[in-house]
Amino acid sequence: MDLIRRGASEIIPEDELVMKLERSLKSGEPLNIKLGCDPSRPDLHIGHAVVIRKLAQFQQLGHQAILIIGDFTGMIGDPTGRSVTRPALSLEETRANGRSYFEQAAKILDPDKTRIVHNSEWLAKMSFEDVIRLASKYTVARMLERDDFTKRYKNGEPISVHEFLYPLAQAMDSVAIKSDVELGGTDQKFNLLVGRDIQRESGIEPQVILTMPLLVGTDGVEKMSKSYGNYIGISESPKEMYGKTLSIADSLILTYFELVTAVSKGDLQLIKEELEKPETNPRNLKRRLAREIVSLYHTPEEAVKAEEEFDRIFIKKELPDEIPEMEWTRANGNISITDLITQVSFAPSKSEARRLVQQGGVTFNNQKISDPSTTVIIEKDNILKVGKRKFIRITNK
Fold first, then answer.
1. CA–CA gap between residue 174 and residue 182 (Å, rounded)
2. Which helix (H) or strand (E) holds 392?
3. CA nearest 392: which of 338, 345, 334?
4. What domains sit in the chain, N to C, each tagged with a CATH number?
């Protein structure tokens, strides 16, 4: 229970979980631990990994980890946290995203001991009569208790009827696999509770729900998300992971150690005590945190190399060991800095390149450039740096 409770926001109800665990120990039958994945996002970051790591902990305790790829529910779109109806995806898109999700989740889970199922296996077979029967088990009033539905209803914003079906479809996943415990973020609490109700209505022992906090991103404000640009991707390079981790707010250090790493409970207490000392430099703890995170998704050796690379670039102000190279092929060696940035794919557009220059994040041959209209001359050997970690060597023969 100490391991299961670690980092959890809520366990509902905890006494039922204890009962299920005791029964499992006596019978030798593992519990079915369910995590449904949203296949609308093919790329995972360490915020997604918080709940996947909890599934891995149950797996380490000997229980059956079941990862449900929501290829069918993905065509509806989870309305959680949405102010407008989510655009639907095709079955092919949800399947492709689901494959990508599992490939990345396998960095955390034991793939050989993880059961993978697609909810189209049972949901696609339901007749309209089956859907009506299912819908009759839940009321509109209960659906409108959900915060995002309530806000949209009060604001006169449209709610499509199919969005009411999403939590019911997710609940049918719990019925189909006879889930004992379902995991999710705190934003999924409503959906998980619906699963308990529909299991009970279907004559199945209700699942226990365990929610995990939504990880705040590197900006220290919004939840981690690619759309906010405050994420650390689990498939990113060691140096990207290391550098991004050092950029987190000091207030997040302990939370990240607890939710994102595997450090022991005793170490967590020592880190907490260290943070409370006025003489402690938070950067030293962030360096350890960065090494822990890189070691989890790569190797301890790569974590050390990433730290050495970071120190070389940002402390000693030296160049990275490895810099991609590009040979200049134009006859004319003059080019505007914004054109150069877009040509080497360091920005998707000229407007974005201008913004990078105006923000002071661009240097050419170690000279800071702040005017987007600047023209640079490509000589024999040139170094372009954009942002903190993008370098390219441009040679002109």
1. 8
2. strand 390-395
3. 345
4. 2-212 (3.40.50.620), 238-315 (1.10.240.10), 325-395 (3.10.290.10)
Q: Tens digits of per-residue pLDDT, 117-166? A: 999 999 999 999 999 999 999 988 888 888 888 888 888 888 888 888 98
Q: Is the dihedral of CA 52, 55, 61, 66 positive or negative?
A: negative
| Backbone torsions φ then ψ of 177, nearest 5 degrees | -100, 5
pLDDT in tens, 260-286: 999 999 999 999 999 999 999 999 999
Q: What is the pTM of this model?
A: 0.77
Give CA separation, 238 vs 203, 306, 365, in Å: 49, 6, 26
| DSSP of 65-134 | EEEEE-TTGGGT---TT-SSPPPP--HHHHHHHHHHHHHHHTTTS-GGGEEEEETHHHHTT--HHHHHHH
Give the sheet arrangement for strand 181-185, strand by strand. 10-12, 208-212, 181-185, 32-37, 64-69, 114-118
The residues with which 12 forms a beta bridge, in sequence order, are: 209
